[in-house]
């Protein structure tokens, strides 16, 4: 393929029309959108050239884009401009921002300036202050020349960065980047504006009712202890994080704990979080509103941040969040296939659980055997806990509700306890009904379930030989020990490499020893096990503790992600489009031509295909076909 590098400069107004105030999609589709021009590097040996829009349009018409690998830094932005405004659709997109996020880490900034600085290059020279709020015909010749020179400089740096990053960038990740970018730049999903408006209105009514029922004021909830007490009364144990001197409650807007509370299944818990954070619109309302406006402008541009998490999974982006949609939610149903097409979401069934037990015990591990034999992996654990035979009930079973609840507890135990869940976490999750019907369980019973799982799964939990223990010892290797192969993984230079070369990055991992003041606080809190210190690593949101079962979770998520994206690459190579990638699921587009079962079979075959580097791992999946996004 021919390689071309490009970078667009556009009109903006820092007071109201800017990417700092708008989503990428709304900025580019806005009537005020105006490209100043584009710098293009047509060949490696040629310097970048600046074009005004009309000049570029004329040159682009003479270019065969069907054989072009088009590279940008933040390809969602530049690519949507090219496709939406110029009709340019290259063979494949490349993105140095995405490459940098995988190879340098999601815990640091990967803006063009930051990546240039990382590789010892000079800062960008584009003079944004000269064209803030000014249209092209309002600029003097000096400003125009500086804008053109700055854009050409950016293009040359993008080309140089691509060559530096390409040395270590895994080949199989290029199509993953391209597919992720095209979810945004080549949108086809239709949004149901009326349903999204209905979701917003219903959530508004529900929010008012929730807040009135609480009987507490916003001022009262600003006391951390008062808020913590109310959460405990609602069955939620408040999480804490490391502070400057001691642990503090994770009650900030940016804390994952508070974000989870905003989506909690319990109305009271959700309302408490909304008032504490001063939320004017609920999370559901914000998403419905953002999607509704987008749907009014055109097809839904699905923005995912490639490798946006430390476990290589995508994260939501552009303030739209097309991830984390609950099954059968109204938000899912607000997304529809375009005319003449259908949606086929294919979900890799229990993949993290399968990967966990495979890594811990290989293809003959007991739980892996259950998956291979297509046995229900949840009922045995539930049966041991309840000391009776638990089964998956049929619709007319007189014990249907009871069995669904108890089997759901088995599912929760199998899928949650493998990552070291505590009894408190188990109790809260059971009440929220995450894995089945909501179940009220005492803390004693929750602790007993956790103990049962740990005794029943020695390959994962055994104190010295289990996978958690291995992972705990591996933290020292990650922090600076010699290289080592660990199953299908390779540990070297503060990284865990997957077989395809994808790195999980632990550059900031360190063993922290508490100060005397911190030790006193730990003793007062009864946390004697932390007196000698603990492993921690820096993230963009501060320090995060690490331990064996946590590293196990990171590894299982990363391995599962690569298994799914390898299937995605095979599926897209067959000509199918993947419109969204919510973790272990691929939202595929199939033609509405009366061959639904055929297309389902093709997609499911690829999701179940054995992974060469995990021989003997049984994979499974489930799918459904409809014009709306159902699951």
Assembly category: single chain
The counted number of beta strands is 22
Mean pLDDT: 93
The largest β sheet comes out as: 5 strands, mixed
Broad structural category: alpha+beta
Give helix % range. 40-55%
Low-confidence stretches: none
Shape: globular
Kindly estimate the percentage of residues that lie in beta strands according to DSSP.
Answer: 5-15%
Number of H/I helices: 26
Distance between the amino and carboxyl termini: 38 Å
Instruction: Please give the order of strands in the largest beta sheet.
Output: 3-2-1-4-5
- Rg over CA atoms: 26 Å
Describe, in plain words, how this protein is organized in 3D.
This protein is 46% helix and 14% strand. It has 26 helices and 22 strands. The strands form 7 sheets. It has a 5-stranded mixed sheet, sandwiched between helices. α9 packs antiparallel against α14 (283-297) and α16 (351-361) crosses α17 (366-372). The model has no long low-confidence stretch (mean pLDDT 93).
In short:
The protein has 26 helices and 22 strands.
Labels describing this entry:
46% helix, 22 strands, globular, 26 helices, alpha+beta, four-stranded antiparallel sheet
Please write out the topology.
Blueprint: E1 2-10, H1 24-29, E2 35-41, E3 49-51, H2 53-61, E4 68-72, H3 75-86, E5 92-95, H4 96-104, H5 112-118, H6 128-131, H7 141-166, H8 173-185, E6 190-191, H9 193-214, H10 218-221, H11 224-233, E7 240-242, E8 247-249, H12 256-261, H13 267-276, H14 283-297, E9 304-305, E10 315-316, H15 330-333, E11 335-336, E12 341-348, H16 351-361, H17 366-372, H18 379-386, H19 400-416, H20 423-432, H21 443-456, H22 458-461, H23 467-480, E13 484-486, E14 489-492, E15 495-497, E16 503-505, E17 510-512, H24 516-524, E18 534-539, E19 542-546, H25 548-573, E20 577-580, E21 585-591, H26 596-608, E22 621-623
Parallel strand pairs: 1-4, 4-5
Antiparallel strand pairs: 1-2, 2-3, 6-11, 7-8, 9-10, 12-21, 12-22, 13-14, 14-15, 15-16, 17-18, 18-19, 20-21
Helix pairs in contact: 3-8, 4-7, 8-25, 9-13, 9-14, 16-17, 16-25, 18-19, 20-21, 23-25
């Amino acid at each position: 393929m021919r390689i071309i590098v490009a970078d667009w400069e556009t009109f903006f107004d820092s007071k109201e029309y800017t990417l700092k105030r708008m989503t990428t999609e709304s900025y580019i589709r806005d009537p005020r959108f105006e490209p100043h021009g584009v710098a293009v590097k047509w060949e490696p040996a040629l310097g970048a050239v600046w074009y005004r829009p009309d000049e570029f349009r004329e040159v682009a018409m003479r270019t065969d884009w069907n054989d072009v690998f088009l590279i940008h830094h933040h390809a969602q932005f530049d690519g949507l401009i090219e496709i939406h405004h110029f009709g340019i659709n290259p063979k494949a997109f490349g993105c140095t921002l995405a490459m940098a996020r995988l190879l340098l880490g999601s815990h640091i900034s990967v803006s063009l300036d930051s990546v240039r600085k990382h590789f010892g290059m000079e800062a960008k020279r584009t003079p944004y202050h000269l064209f803030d709020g000014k249209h092209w015909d309002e600029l003097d010749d000096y400003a125009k020349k500086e804008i053109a020179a700055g854009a050409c400089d950016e293009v040359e740096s993008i080309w140089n960065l691509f060559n530096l990053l390409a040395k270590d960038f895994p080949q199989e990740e290029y199509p993953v980047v391209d597919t992720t970018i095209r979810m945004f730049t080549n949108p086809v999903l239709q949004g149901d504006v009326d349903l999204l408006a209905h979701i917003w209105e219903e959530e508004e009514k529900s929010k008012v009712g929730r807040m009135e029922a609480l009987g507490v004021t916003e001022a009262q909830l600003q006391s951390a202890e008062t808020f913590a007490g109310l959460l405990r009364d609602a069955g939620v144990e408040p999480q804490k994080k490391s502070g400057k001197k001691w642990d503090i409650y994770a009650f900030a807007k940016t804390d994952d704990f508070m974000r989870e509370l905003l989506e909690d299944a319990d109305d009271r818990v959700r309302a408490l979080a909304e008032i504490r954070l001063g939320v004017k619109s609920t999370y559901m309302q914000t998403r419905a509103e953002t999607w509704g406006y987008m749907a009014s402008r055109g097809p839904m541009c699905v923005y995912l941040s490639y490798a946006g998490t430390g476990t290589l999974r995508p994260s939501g982006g552009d303030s739209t969040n097309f991830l984390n949609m609950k099954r059968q939610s109204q938000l899912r149903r607000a997304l529809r296939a375009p005319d003449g097409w259908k949606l086929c979401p294919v979900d890799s069934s229990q993949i993290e659980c399968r990967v966990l037990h495979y890594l811990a015990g290989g293809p003959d591990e007991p739980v892996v055997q259950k998956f291979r034999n297509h046995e229900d992996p949840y009922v045995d654990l539930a049966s041991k806990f309840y000391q009776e035979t638990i089964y998956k009930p049929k619709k007319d079973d007189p014990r249907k509700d009871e069995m669904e609840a108890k089997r759901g507890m088995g599912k929760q135990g199998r899928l949650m306890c493998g990552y070291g869940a505590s009894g408190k976490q188990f109790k809260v999750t059971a009440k929220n009904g995450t894995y089945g019907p909501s179940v009220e369980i005492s803390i004693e019973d929750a602790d007993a379930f956790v103990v049962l799982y740990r005794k029943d799964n020695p390959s994962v939990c055994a104190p010295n030989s289990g996978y958690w223990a291995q992972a705990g010892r591996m933290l020292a290797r990650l922090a600076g020990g010699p290289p080592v192969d660990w199953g299908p993984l390779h540990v070297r230079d503060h990284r865990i490499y997957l077989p395809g070369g994808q790195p999980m990055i632990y550059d900031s991992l360190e063993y922290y020893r508490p100060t005397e003041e911190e030790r006193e606080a730990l003793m007062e809190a009864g946390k004697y096990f932390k007196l000698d210190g603990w492993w921690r690593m820096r993230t963009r949101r501060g320090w995060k503790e690490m331990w064996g079962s946590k590293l196990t979770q990171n590894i299982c998520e990363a391995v599962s992600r690569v298994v799914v994206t390898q299937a995605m690459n095979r599926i897209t190579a067959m000509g199918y489009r993947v419109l969204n990638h919510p973790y272990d699921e691929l939202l595929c587009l199939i033609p509405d031509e009366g061959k639904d079962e055929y297309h389902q079979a093709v997609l499911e075959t690829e999701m179940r295909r054995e992974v060469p580097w995990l021989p003997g791992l049984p994979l499974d999946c489930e799918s459904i076909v409809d014009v709306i996004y159902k699951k």
